[in-house]
Amino acid sequence: MVASIADPKAFRSGLDFSAWVGLVPKQSSSGGNDTLGSVSKQGDRYLRSLFTAGALAVIRYAKIQGTDHRPWLTRLLARRPTKVAAIALANKLARMAWAMMARSERYNEPAALAA
After folding, report:
1. Whether pTM exceeds 0.90
2. What does the pLDDT look like over 53-78, one tens digit per residue?
3. How far apart are CA 60 and CA 70, in angstroms?
4. What is the total count of domains within the chain?
């Protein structure tokens, strides 16, 4: 990821980075009606596949070990199919990765997950 992005501050936000990777739904708006479609194949194909594979691995591990310490993922998997949840998780991971790169910080596990 570091090799693909010279300067993470070139993106205004994590959402812009996630859209550049291609992990957000295609938007079609007309007359004030916002319509979100499926995730397009635009963006960086290699990074998108890495984030998606990582998200599927997290979901696979969560299904084996239990999802008690990941309430967001538990609720998402209850509502959506596994691959749809994987794309949502990949989007979240991409935004987190951008934030860590842009702020030059390390990952700090939330207190709810550490317990």
Report:
1. no
2. 999 999 998 888 876 778 888 899 99
3. 13
4. 1
